[in-house]
Structures are given as structure tokens and as C-alpha cells.
Predict the 3D structure of the following.
Amino acid sequence: MSGLAARHPVGLAAASAPVWIALYLSLQPVADGFVTLLGLAPASSSTEAVRFFVYEVPKVLLLLAAVVFFVGIVRSYFSPERTRRLLEGRSLLGGNVLASLLGIVTPFCSCSAVPLFIGFVKAGVPLGVTFSFLIAAPMINEVAVVLLAGLFGWQTASLYVGTGLVIAISSGFIIGRLKLERYIEDWVHNVPTAAEGQEDSPLSVRDRVRTGFDAVHDVVGKVWPYLVVGIAVGAGIHGYVPEDLMADLMGRSAWWSVPAAVLIGVPLYSNAAGIIPIVEALLSKGAALGTALAFMMSVIGLSLPEVIILRKVLKLPLILTFVGIVAGGIVIVGYLFNILL
């Protein structure tokens, strides 16, 4: 974090707002002017690909920085320890709902899956509730929401959040009802319980705004290469892939496209920054919304690194059950989107 953000976070936030607005409003004229400057032929594949890339990269970065800043402030109220305490002793269904909601706002990454899982198990959080959290946290994140809202509008982003919550709640509930605790690795139960920490010290407004800047630095700093690569791939699809081909492969009439998209997406690894620009380009070429979103959810919601890491604490039958239930939920959501929208 820069020295200015550390010393005067509130003032810097206030000064940044009009600059952000001015930059966002200038994106389309700048993209059009850049294409004209290059002397590209109007309406050609190359022109459309370049215009897509030049416009989308700064647009998505600006949207991402703004939302990550505000979500970072919200997350300052939810440490992992506080989340664990909130879920401790909850009933199955009520715990599934609360865990899924907390998963959206609690800091989480694949590398923290094992310690979070162990902490939840040792605290007596039901297995199904734990999985609701582990599903919602990576699938419904601020990066995915802001990119979807910026590219497709808040209605699509809201539908994504709602269906993601349904998948997390229902998948965790089913796993809880199946009573699969015997498939937790034995060593997990023997991990010494850490001493209870003191209550989290309250943060000032200044500290919380500083936390927002820290979140922008950490999140945007990590995902921008994926974002640029994803938009570059999307630009190529947008400019060069024939519409008829994409409509045949991922259109509404291809009944097999939703399960095929999920099967392709599950073993892939990317994040929202890399995959959503590709989804935008697929949709612009005639892919059905449900099929494209099912592909996206399977990639970021069933992260291959997370599954590999969880194998350290879960036996294979539970891993396969987890992947199968979540993938099945994503397929159902994909079909519903294609039918209703």
C-alpha cells in the first residue's frame, strides 16, 4: 500500500471518486479513438477484436478496483475466527444458509481451505454447513459479481449470486444429510485445538478504509494478469469465431451443451477475472446464457487446486460426492437459465 493511502486513507478515497468517474466515462471515446489512430478497416474482425480489448481491460479494472475496495471494508467485519464462532453450534439448514452468506464476504482462497476446514470441524460445525461455506466462498466472490455486473448488467449478476447461493445451500444440506463424517481423514480429529483468541479489536473508520485499499492492492495485483489474458482470449473469440459455430456448440438447441460445458470446466483452473471475459465473448457469438454461466461456475466453483488441497483432509468418496453434487447443481441451474431467459 502506498504511503499516502496508509497516512490519509479517507482523504485519498474521497479524492479518488471523481477521478474514477471521469476515467470510466472516457473509456468508449478512448477505445474508438485508438482504433481510428491505428487505421484499421471499419467493422473488420481485427477492428472489433482490438476495440473489445482496449475498451474492456480498463473498464473491468476500474469496476474491479471500486468493488474490491468496498468489499474489503465489509470484510473487515468478518475475520475467519469470527466466522467460525458465528457458525459454531448452528443447526443444519439454518447453518447452511448462514454459512453460504458468510462465504460471500469472508476472505477465502484455495490455500486456506485446509485450515478453515480443520477449524470448523474442531469447533463442531456440521460437515454440511462447512461445505456450504467452502462452496459459496470461491464461487460467489466480488470479482465474479463486479465483472458480471459490468459486462452483462446487475440483473444477470443478481441471478448469478442467487443461483450460487442455492447451489451452496442445497449441496451443503445434501452432504450433511448423507452423514459422511466417516470420510474425514482421521488425523483431522487429532489436531490440537488452538486456544481461543481474544475478541477482535474494533477498527476505526480510518482503519477500515485502509483495509479497503489493502484489498485493492492485494486482489487487483494478483488477478490483473488473468484478466488481461482472459480479455485477450475473449477479444479473439469476439472478432474471429463465427456466430453460427458458437450457436451450434453452446446454443439453446444443443441439449447436451450444459453438461458438456460443466465436464469441460471442472478440471480447468482459472478465476473469475480470467474466465468471465471469455464468457462475454461466447455470449456475443450466440452461446446460451445458462450454458455459458454453467461453464463459468464449474471453473471457479470447483477449483482443481482447492479439490487437490482438500484431499489432504477428505477421503476420496467424500471428494467425489462433493464434486458430483455441486456439478449436478450447476447443470440444473444451467438448464433453468436456458429455459427461463
Q: What stands out?
A: Residues 66 and 216 are 8 Å apart (CA to CA). Residues 205-240 form the longest helix (36 residues). The chain is about 75% helix and 0% strand. The two ends are 43 Å apart (CA to CA).
